[in-house]
Design a protein that fits this description.
The complex is a heterodimer of chains A (177) and B (148). With 177 residues, chain A is α/β, with parallel strands linked by helices. Helices cover 38% and strands 19% of the residues of chain A. In chain A, a hairpin with a 7-residue loop joins strand 1 and strand 2. The termini of chain A are far apart. By secondary structure, chain B is an all-alpha fold. Chain B is built from five helices and no strands. In chain B, helix 2 crosses helix 3. The C terminus of chain B is likely disordered. Classes of the chains: A alpha/beta (177), B mainly alpha (148). At the A-B interface, helix 4 of A face helix 3 and helix 4 of B.
Chain lengths: 177, 148
């Protein structure tokens, strides 16, 4: 009896290890789960990108779902996802609040003029403090905030049509948005 | 002598990273050396999530600079280390800490080295016992053979 157990044990150990390692192959270590999901969305007041004398805040946005998109003209992935954001703005009628992260105003305004502006409002986060409050560690990142003001989802990296369909839309069901 | 040399090398290799990690900021964040030391220790505990295998003390990525500024500002406000760690984990999760906290979901993680050592010891004990028994059997056998 004992002999058999001793022979089987290394095999069992190997299989266990293999299962973990194989799983590890398909995990993306650059996508870190956000502790913000399920928590109230952090509030912010930022100077408006177009008119810094005005303020952009998400305080008044609670009550219906919205997106928060963190972007910068220095970010290649942001250019990649821009068309998807424009589509969302055109078709889905979900307002997008932009956080322009550590960028230059002129460059950001030119970007929006050239590529189109999917945002209902854009705040300029020059110091990157709001981005830290949102746990942002690389642009682009896109948050879905529910009608109750809680973060429902966070997408890291360029937003794609597939991600929108598979990650965002199911979570929007029952939000009344 | 060679062994002593090897030991010295290993000791040096182990002690260097901690000992010589310099603040990456161009100037000291605090005039008070004790505060500066606390600041540097905290920075070494916090992972730069953008450049994952570096702490925010080692990295000069923009995000690491920003996070160092947050640490500096919170320390200047008089908040303690636990407060600052809580600030970081609330935003970035446990992954931001190089030392994950002891919590039910991390028990296995923390216990794993001890468990593995125990399994190893158990295996060694079993093997030694088996051998001792086999050896005993053999000598018994030999003695048995020797007897008329």
């Amino acid at each position: 009896m004992m002999h058999k157990a001793l022979f089987v044990l290394p095999g069992v150990g190997f299989i266990l290890l293999a299962v973990f390692l194989v799983r590890g192959l398909f995990l993306d270590p650059s996508r870190i789960p956000s502790p913000l999901i399920g928590a109230p969305a952090p509030q912010f007041n930022l100077p408006d990108l177009g008119d810094p004398s005005r303020e952009v805040t998400n305080l008044s946005w609670t009550g219906s779902p919205y997106l928060v998109n963190v972007w910068g003209t220095w970010c290649a992935g942001c250019r990649e996802e821009h068309e998807v954001l424009l589509d969302i703005a055109r078709n889905h009628e979900l307002p997008i609040l932009g956080i322009n992260w550590k960028d230059q105003r002129e460059l950001a305004l030119r970007w929006l003029a050239e590529l189109g502006n999917p945002y209902s409002a854009v705040g300029a986060d020059l110091e990157g403090r709001v981005a830290i409050d949102w746990g942002v560690y690389g642009a682009p990142e896109t948050f879905l905030v529910g009608a109750d003001g809680r973060v429902l989802w966070k997408h890291i990296g360029p937003l794609t049509v597939e991600a929108w369909r598979d990650e965002f839309l199911p979570r929007l069901q029952g939000q009344g948005g | 002598m060679r062994l002593r040399g090897l030991c010295l090398t290993v000791w040096l290799a182990l002690s260097l990273p901690g000992g010589t990690a310099l603040a990456i900021d161009s100037e000291a964040a605090f005039a008070d050396p004790a505060m500066q030391a606390r600041y540097e220790n905290l920075n070494r505990e916090l992972r730069c999530l953008f450049c994952q295998n570096q702490s925010i003390a080692d990295s000069n990525a923009t995000l690491a600079q920003d996070l160092r500024r947050e640490v500096r500002d919170m320390m200047a406000e008089g908040r303690d280390d636990a407060d600052i760690r809580a600030f970081m984990t609330a935003r970035y999760g446990d992954f931001v800490l190089y030392d994950p906290p002891l919590a039910p979901r991390t028990w296995l993680l923390w216990a794993a080295p001890g468990l593995l050592v125990m399994i190893g010891i158990l295996a060694v004990v079993l093997v030694i016992r088996r051998r001792a028994r086999n050896l005993g059997d053999e000598t018994d056998g030999l003695q048995g053979e020797g007897e008329p």
